[in-house]
## 1
Amino acid sequence: MQVKLTGPLRSAAGGQASVEVEASTIRELFRKLCEQYPGFQAHMDNGVAVAINGDVFRDEWSTVIPEGAEVFLLPRIQGG
Amino acid sequence: MSGAHVSTTINGDAVEFACPQDESLLDALRNRVGLTGVKEGCGTGDCGACSITLDGRLVCSCLVLGVEANGKQIGTVEGLADGDQLHPLQEKFIEHAALQCGICTPGFLVAAKVLLERNPDPSETEIRYALAGNLCRCTGYDKIVRAVQAAGKEMRKQNKKKAKKKKKK
Amino acid sequence: MKQDTNFTNQEFRVIGTRVKRPDGIDKVTGRARYGADATAPGQLVGMFLRSPHAHARIKKLDVSRAEKLQGVKAVITSADLPDEHCGGDRELLNILENCMARGRALYDGHAVAAVAAVDATTAKKALKLIKIDYEKLPHVTDVDEAMQADAPVIHDWVYTVGVEPQPNKPSNVSMRAQFGHGDVEAGFKEADVIIEKSYKTGQTHQGYIEPHACLANMSPDGSGELWVTTQGHFAYRNTCAQILGLNMAKLKVTSSEIGGGFGGKTHVWIEPIALALSRKANRPVKVVMSREEVFRASGPTSSTSIDVKIGATKDGRITAATSECRYQGGAFPGTWALIGAMTSFAPYDLKNVQTVSYDVVCNRPKVAAYRAPSAPMAAFAVESTVDLVAQELGIDPIDFRILNAAKEGTQSSYGPVYGPIGIGPTLDAAKSHPHMKAKLGKNQGRGMACGFWFNFGGQTSTTINVAADGTVNLSVGTVDVGGSRASLSLICAEELGIPYEQVKAHIGDTAALAHNDMTDGSRGTFASGMATIVAARRTIEVLKQRAATAWEIPVEEVEWKDGCAHAVGEAHADKAPLSLAEIAANTENTGGPIAGHNEFVADGAGVSFASHICDVEVDPETGSTRVIRYTVIQDAGKAIHPDYVEGQFQGGAAQGIGWALNEEYIYGDDGRLQNPGFLDYRIPVCSDLPFIDTQILEIPNPNHPYGVRGVGETSIVPPLAAVANAVSNAVGVRMTQVPISPPRILAALDAESA
């Protein structure tokens, strides 16, 4: 599936706006991204959130990514 | 410390304490008398969280020395309720959700009580100016003003009843 | 107050009612205990010595005379706080260095030493006995100046990330990031009108009335307790333990009543040092910040400099939009500009959009989150420009916004595609609101603006314990910053089918509950509410089982309705329903105590939008501005307790109005803060404001059982722009800098007439 990268996360994939990764859960997605793009680990340390069909998931890595879902990776941010 | 002995009446009770000459009444009330309902928000008289009455006058207790309270009557938020009977202001603040975090509430209650004693039927503008020395960062003051209006109404009703009773006697 | 609750079809029994909050009486009688209200036997007073310089090397730090003073029990400097416990984690090292300067003072107010003494008089004396030789270093406090090539570089380890190739020289720009989609250059070519403008916003403080305060009580064996005013006692525990090299579970942190936070109490300031003092003295230590310390060394939010460019066609469609957000994050790198860039154009449906952020280090206090952090400034710049474009096109600003509003299916400017969202409905409600049609007088103007905030969920743990008389304890791990105990009790009562008055909610300490994330991102009622629903449903499973046991029937034949177990079917017609109280009275014979708990990640927070309308009157003689009418319209998803939802709307609006008109950190050329007090840093007072009208919309969040969205933060996002648009409409001059103080208005009027 196509995973779209936003903001600073693109630097992990040489500036690409999206990458191809096959994954059925957020955990698998992160694992494969770290394998394919060693620069991704630094972003993981800073925190990455995943938007699946518009819903933002920050922590629950067991979340299943449905087939054909629209997947965006965002930097994890703070609130007040 | 070069302490001073202070004799006061607090919320109707005789209270004695000793404090250094340069200690604020706020610190003395909180740390020596144990009345931590009196809050410190700034220590410079700008926020009103430490509002008390001193011989019936509304003051910031952070701007008064402990020794100045000698021989005086002090009123704090702890003295607002009559036993288990809340003051109408206390009732209305809860009913109207006039507090969020609640740190400014003791000061607002004391200030509003002084206002309603002097002016039982204040206009919205009068309420806003009377409470302008008390800072609240949570509510935008909307529900506070409404609670004071409601308490004023309730107190006027109670006073009418009392006056009627007196007349009958 | 007008209310619209027609969006949800769910039938509720107590949700949505305006019950009295459970902590109300404690808070109106002075009984509630806040950060500074706890005492421990033998407690010492802790105090800090702070740098008077914006940037200085600490050449010599001699505490020997202070240590010898009678009554002084401990003195702490960075020498007592080895960095080895941080394990090389940059963020932890920054927190540690912010709590206590390490060789260099990085801003006016930066802590350099701390003492614990038997009383305040002795502690103050001891601070005066500490000798420090400073070597002043060049400083920079303005965000644009800090980005200049010749600016003094504050950290030799800060290299701009997000720039290809990465610079080989350190600078004050810690990060560049970019968001967006489409082709903005092509978009601008399609535009009939293009407006480009630069804006600046002053640095503001959260301004909670309760200063930071804690009571630390450490034993030499590494166990301890911390009583503290905080938005996240678990996070405070973890950070303090990590920095000090303690075992997390041995440190029990209890969150006191909290006297306002707004993001400022999501970060540790005095707490690790209070624990270190207590450990060294082997006595309890109480530390309470003064208001001056709060301003100089805690909070604040970023000051910013932002460029916005928007192009649109004659018929009112935006063809392209860009923003460049430059935010200073104080003395340590942050991600504040990044958030500004992400939120910039969130309310709009844009084909071509690009937002760029520069996070910048300055000699100012380390920036902390402040209610929808970074969004208000970006909204100020964007919403001001939106008004200018509408004006240029001759289209009503609200119609222009409605034409371009994001909707379900819109790709947001920060990436993901929106689900059901409330920006359209809030704009429609604003358009038809009587406020919009009210007549304006002389020197008066009306403005409106939109705002957006993400909202978060996060790790959450909640426990329900059933007492023998059928009353229920609800323990939550998010703190109650604005009445959430009332909302969560309502949720618990709704699920269990019992009266609200039978639930007693309280905030569990770090030993009583599993981990809870910080109470930030408007997550309190959303996340703990969702956790409470699950915990209550689990409690019901236990209650049903107990009823089944008592009836000697299979649990499948028991259902829970209206607070009672019912045996289902003709065969059980003889069995009267068992109430929660009846089941609770006999736990010893049915299997023991009854509880339900839930530990989970509350993901799926719904984004939140608002539209605000503001009327102002400007005195052209003095330049002073009064807000004369204000209306907040916001999507709450579902309002659990409408009073406290309205309270969030009104409070955020008031903070935003203060930001727009008065509030600002003022630094001198010497880099020192000139107004660290409520007299000169003026937050709105009661006589400054009108009643703030509210309208709650309820567009349910599909990820929450009741449809709840966070409501706490969005309300501070539109006011800067709403006020600025109103002022600009009143005086006919565009104000591009907040606060819109009287001198700035007069200067703008003078410039216009010249």
Note: Chain C touches chain A through 50 residues (CB under 8 Å).
## 2
Amino acid sequence: MKRVLLLALLVVLALSVAIPAFAQDESLEIYITDMNEATMTWYNEVAIPAFQETHPGVTVEMLTGGWGDFDASVAGWITTGEGPDIVYLGSEYAATFCNLLTDVSPFLTEEDTAPFLPAALETVTCDGAPRGLPLLMSARPIYYRADLAAEGADFVPPTTFEEALAFVAANSAVENGALTKMGFMDIGSSLFDSQEFIAYIWSAGGELYNEDGTSAFDSDATAQALQYMYDRRRTILPTEDTAGLPPIEGAAIASGSVISGIWAMWQLPPVSDPIWDNITIAPYPAGPDGEQVVQVFVDWLSVPSYVENPELAMDFLKFITSQENAVTLSQVAGYTPVRPDAWETLQADPVWSRILDVAAEYGRGFSDIRASAELRPLIVEQATLFLTDQQSLEQTQQNLKEEYDLILEENGYLD
Amino acid sequence: MTTVTRNTGLPLNEGVVPRKRPGLPRRFLNAIGGWTAIFTYLIMILASLFFLFPLAWMGGTSLKTIQEANGSQLNFLPAIPQWENYAKLFADETFYRSYINSIFVTALVLIGTVTSIAVVAYSFSRLQWKGRNAVFYLMLGTLMLPAQATLVPQYVLFHNLDWIRTFNPITIPGYFAGGAALIFLVRQFMLTIPKELDEAAIVDGANPLQIWWYIIMPLSRPAIATITVFLFVGQWNNLLNPLLYLQKPELYTMPVYIAQQRAITETPIPWQDIMASSVAFVVPVLIVFFLTQRYFIEGISFTGSKEG
Amino acid sequence: MRILQNRYVTILWLALAAIGSILAANAIANLVVTTTSPVVTAERYRAIIWSVGTIAFIILGSVCVGHIGEAIAGWAKLSRAEQRKVFWGVTFAAPWIIGFVIFVLGPALASLYYSLTDYKLGETPNFIGLENYRILLSGEGAHGRRFGQSMYNSFYYALVGVPLQLITALAMAMLVNQALRGMKLFRLIFYIPVILAGGAAILLAWRYMLASNGGFINVTLQALARSFFATDFLYKGFIFGVEGFNGFYSGLARGDQVGPLIYTLPALIGAVLLFLSARGDWENSKRDRAWLVAEVIGMVLIFMLFVRALITTPVDWGMVLLAGSLAIAGILLNGQRGKRGSLRAWQAFTLIGLLGVLLVILLGDTTLSWEQRLPYIIGAAIIGVPVLFSMIGPWSRAKVYALAGGLVIAVAVLFIRDFGAEFGQRTIVPVVKYVFLGTALEPSADLTWLLESFPQSLASALWLWGAVALLLGGLAIANNRWPRAQRWVAIIGAVVFALIAVGSFLDGVRYFQAIDAASQAAGSPTYHFTLFRNATAAWPGENRVPLWLSSELWSKPSLILITMWSSGAMMLIFLAALKGVSQALYEAAKVDGANRTQRFFKITLPMISPALFYNLVIAIIAALQTFDTIYILQTVDTVDSLQSAVFFLYTRTFRQLAIGQGSGVSWILAGVIVLITVIQFRYSKWVHYEV
């Protein structure tokens, strides 16, 4: 019996040694969050074969994911050093993942970067070095239903905080303790959004950081932005116990009960919808010392630091962001290219050209937000306390400033 | 069915010979169990509305057009049922692939987990050995550490085993009696089986393995059925682990497939497609549950042991 | 010797064979995978081959582990028969043991190590000792504060959610347990939410059910409320109650000063316990109960003191005495009752604790002077000497006296040190002031003065608990010796605690009003009881609806509603237990003239108590680890009021990449869960097992 066992064992061991790990072709994996089916098909059937023509022997695989599971997946890849070669990231991630991404400047020439919008390049840069290439941008202006506005034919988009409050007051209505008409809805539809708050600090003439790198949340601009958001909330919801609108599952702007708001493109009706004739597109209102802005988010493709062949990854990035492909993607996927030389087809569309015009004139990239993963919960916590009357304005500003300074210090931004 | 009648708290009509044939309404009332029963039914139906809401919503939405599914009106049912939604789904190859993956993974997990849990629970309940309680409490202790705490080290472990992008991280851990709460449940049940049975078998010269297979397992059927259902539902719905470890569209299970459907950004969101695949995903579970409930409702009594 | 050698050879062979089977599976799987396409088929083959390999591995490995167990039993000099039993037992338990070592122990140790470092993803970890724990437990900075709040939220789910969930599940089980037609179908319907859990459908359905305006639940509630004046009153009362309670709770969770109110609850519970002990005869069961209560209070206290010791450096020497006197009480009680296992456990833990303190004081903190160290050493001696003495030889009267002496000295020193003054100020003064002067505190508009004049010392609130534990324990030891004196001690104790409760409550309300007035005068500084004030200022007007997911006051109740909704698994367990209740018992009770309610409380509940206990333990653990639903439901407005400790852990680890601190959270949470579970097991006397 024992002899049989021994023999079996030896065979097994010999087998496991004899079967070598098979050499694999060079491969490239791309992880993209949020993609529609048409885009996926385009990648698989057009773009990848074209890339393989110039890079024979390279297999390219597309992986998709949602933002929901994104955090845990990325953590896994980075700890083990094995994961996709190209990872799709949102605007504020450059700072969060900074050290975990490859500095790709050796693979980029002046020529490569010249066509991109400078603001978009800024978004993909951390510690002075680019970490990938921008893929698309989405401007988030305010959309107004001019046809439904209480002002009627006299409607002009408000340009200051004061005018905006007057507009919201005229266009909101509460009946039986519940909202029936909402003058303004933000992207999260909860009347406070931390990204929007940062935009108002900018439009009030402020910045997030002082020259020495410390937080500037104690500025007047921050006070004005907070106060504006508070007043707007009170105008829409006279008391905190007012019930909201009935649930709207489709595009809120088409529901008729929402008169203005900030949305991402995918929350809006398709540009072919005739409703766009009634929609006015405008930048955010400004404070007394500031100028109007429009927030622009840039989604980009990064190369993590564990990638063994960053040059190949960069080749693919350059290929996919080339003028020709950018034009195609803007048609197939509805992306707004980050290189103006690919805007032509978009500008032919009346709606897109309006959005692009506003973005070009007022756009400001949502970039250089330091330690954003920790800043966001801080803003949400403190601002919610202020908006629900649990904390004074001064106290809110003081807490924001003190704690953000601590976070900045912890993360090595202040030396 | 006799077990059910035996356990009712209501008076039974057995053995009572009706003197006179009662009128039709009276007979109807008797047939369904009297006024108390009507009251009970009323409560149950009201409660059912509450519990059925999500399913009804799902079914309704799956038959809507995309415009209806995204409309602002609260409508349960579409104007015209769009059966094409299902036709489209059943024509989709990736749907089948994910579906089969789900069945495949669930089957493997069930086989391994149920057997190993039955074995381990047997040791913790029927076998007397020094150190048993210490090991048992250690096992209960594993319930206390949140799963998220070990997610990262576990990922590293599976990576070192070369298991990323295979089914192994989902299936293999189950073979090691995964699920302390379920071991606990089966153990509680096994404790109620009379000790005399084992003792008689030992006298006949049976070893513990034989006792387990010939005596304990047949008697533990309700408990095994219960944990099978719990495990089945749990594994069928498991999203986080497949999402973390499978990473390849070919290997996706149904929950990941549905999650991917939502991750794809289209305007407006194709809720009707998502709901159609959800219905297809849920229906087998409902059927399995309905058909098997007889086995595990038969009566798990929790009597027997002292220390919990 | 030959047998021994053979045993080791067997172990070796089995281990090699087990490893070999896995290697073989891997090798075969690789071979098959590389020759099969498409990918999915190949991977399915791989999974099957691995499964077979794993089964072989487990069988061989289990026998191997069984032999190892037997060998260990041999070293422990167990009898041959015992060794055989260990072999079988371990062999059958081995699938779990092996899995534990591979899949749980390693990762758990790794996370324990991370929790002692400042590990951030992508950076090298530095060892920082207990720093993460200190930050979290002391509520320092933004992370500490948010962690504290998330713990409050987790407790909310456990304390408010679990009972409601149990009641719902039991009610459902009793409904479907009736011998009526169609119950199978209803069973299925009640179980449906569990089957759907987490899917996209449920997300959408919840949103529509819980919409504040036009949602299914609110429409139903409003329709019910409008149908009848009494239901309208109930509906408004519901809104008022939920908003008031959650307003108050969110103030607590955000760490606001509650002033003297912090004493009310411990004092009240102490008074009730002692009063209950004073009634009737001290038969054995009552003595046991008294001592169990005392022991549980002692355990909780020592745990809290330990936590506090972690975050204050250096540890207050009073803590050593307080924890020590509780531990001595535990030793005394167990010794007197002849519970050797518990006695040894208490003795061992006391010594380990004291040793730890001495190590920290003498070696850990070198900046301390000898004068500063002296009180610790004396304190440790007061406790340690009698405990050491009690560990030598059998239990004797001399030991009881030594321990009691140590206990009395420790309590006396502590009382003189810091409790005397507190005690007077908190009990007698406010009661006298309130009764005779009609006012306890002049409302002051100066907020800083208020905050300073009511220092909130956790230790002094703990003191009340310590006193309850000691009194109850003392009474239990004294037992039959001086029954009369015992009753009087209990009554006097109860009166004193009642006074403290009433006094601190009155004082607390006044304080609350004063601080409220001051905060309003100061122009709304941070004062989270604002929510409570606003919610209870007026009776809900017409058209008020529950705001559910869109308000801080309703977010936690929404989440609980959803857990109640999907408590089908619990229902099944209850149902199974109900089926097991013998019908003869009911028949007998009916003959005795027991009505429905009596039958429920006297028969049903005791008979299904093991299932209730199982559900309770599992539900509390699950509630403290709530994650999925929060992940789906949270919005900007409600994320802070919803996030549980596990959600915080997730954010900290995966969003902010601070793996070190995230791991710290999980171990603190695990500690709390272990403590609660131990108490539940300790208190499971009410669980009725039919042998």
Note: Chain A is about 40% helix and 15% strand.
